[in-house]
Specification:
It is a single chain. By secondary structure, this protein is an alpha+beta fold. The chain is about 25% helix and about 25% strand. The protein is built from seven helices and 19 strands. β11 and β12 form a beta hairpin. The chain is elongated and about 90 Å long. The protein starts with 8 loop residues before the first helix and ends with a strand.
Length: about 350
């Protein structure tokens, strides 16, 4: 079928497209998708090998067909890599080259420039670390808009920050580039990133344009080049139960209580277990100062970090020795829900709300 890759004046005559492109975030997403199309989808490097493979599959049978619609010479030419002005229907490779050149010309006219894509990171550098494929209000995990949604947690296993501008999440193995990370999205070294799977991309935070299936399906993290960085085909899930890697970041997936934005590993230290149920926070919602009550004299200081619901770390420090009440200034935090993680590798967590 004929595919119209026109992006210039012809599209501007269409009122709905014109109105959508007047919205800055839609225009930015549109331009990014054009660049992805030119660089990785509608390109000779990607499409010509597909044509060659298909030719090997069907050419001999096609030429032996007694009721072939076109002469054999036309069929052979259509599989060729030649340019010609003497035929009504151009060869497929010629068609691709011409349409791609026209698309690039229109991009230049519109002032659309594409940065060079990054090389894909190594498999294992960023992993699908944990997810919940069925969430409701009994799970007590809310997105920045206060809604209980499915979510995916990525974990950066490296000691360097990684930019995700050239990466995608998908729930369909046949559509590798289903949802693109917004330009400039990063994940901290040894940090976590939360993506809400609810199709609410107009809300604060990262919201994928697909939902997860409780009955089981595929999740993939892919690069714009087509490389699959990480993926999983998961089985049927329970509501508000996470499917998480144990050990954290490297192990197989197991079902357990969610540890959103933190280490998946269970308690393995006596000293950590001693503080599990003796720390409380108040007030919640909090406006200026978060009060931490410690009902135990600890031998060591207790490390803690405060994360938002996208997995971004806002505050990191330690609760001092032998102090039962500690006050933390949270005035710099935007309004929303947060996770207070404490103990060894942040294995313990308490949720609070900043107003």
């Amino acid at each position: 079928p004929y595919v119209d890759y026109t992006i210039g004046e012809k599209f501007n005559r269409r009122k709905l497209i014109r109105r959508l492109r007047n919205i800055p975030e839609y225009e930015a997403y549109y331009r990014k998708e054009i660049c992805v199309t030119v660089q990785n989808v509608f390109s000779e490097e990607r499409l010509f090998p597909i044509l060659d493979r298909n030719r090997q599959l069907i050419e001999s049978e096609l030429l032996d067909e007694p009721f072939i619609f076109y002469p054999a010479e036309t069929v052979q030419y259509d599989f060729s890599n030649k340019d010609s002005q003497t035929v009504v229907i151009p060869a497929m490779k010629q068609y691709i080259r011409r349409k791609r050149a026209r698309l690039i010309e229109e991009m230049d006219t519109l002032g659309i420039t594409c940065r060079e894509s990054s090389e894909p990171i190594a498999q294992g550098d960023v992993v699908i670390n944990e997810f919940v494929a069925s969430a409701d209000d009994e799970g007590n995990i809310e997105d920045p808009s206060g809604e209980n949604e499915d979510w995916i947690e990525l974990y950066n296993t490296t000691s360097s920050e990684i930019e995700l501008s050239d990466y995608f999440l998908t729930d369909d193995i046949a559509i590798a580039q289903k949802w693109a990370f917004p330009e400039g999205t990063t994940i901290d070294s040894e940090g976590y990133l939360i993506i809400w799977c609810d199709e609410d991309d107009d809300q604060e935070g990262l919201h994928a344009l697909f939902k997860l299936s409780k009955g089981g399906e595929y999740i993939g993290l892919t690069h714009t080049s087509g490389v699959i960085i990480d993926s999983i085909n998961y089985p049927e899930q329970e509501t508000n139960v996470a499917y998480a890697r144990i050990p954290n970041g490297t192990g197989n997936f197991v079902s357990q209580e969610p540890t959103i934005g933190g280490n998946n590993d269970g308690t393995s230290s006596t000293s950590d277990g001693e503080i599990a149920d003796v720390i409380s926070l108040f007030p919640s919602p909090v406006q200026n100062r978060l009060e931490v009550r410690i009902e135990l004299n600890t031998v060591n200081s207790i490390p803690y970090s405060i994360y938002d619901m996208m997995g971004r770390k806002w505050i990191s420090n330690s609760l001092p020795l032998n102090q039962n009440n500690v006050s933390i200034d949270v005035r710099s935090l935007p309004a929303g829900s947060y996770i207070f993680r404490y103990g060894i590798e942040g294995r313990r967590a308490i949720k609070f709300v900043k107003k």
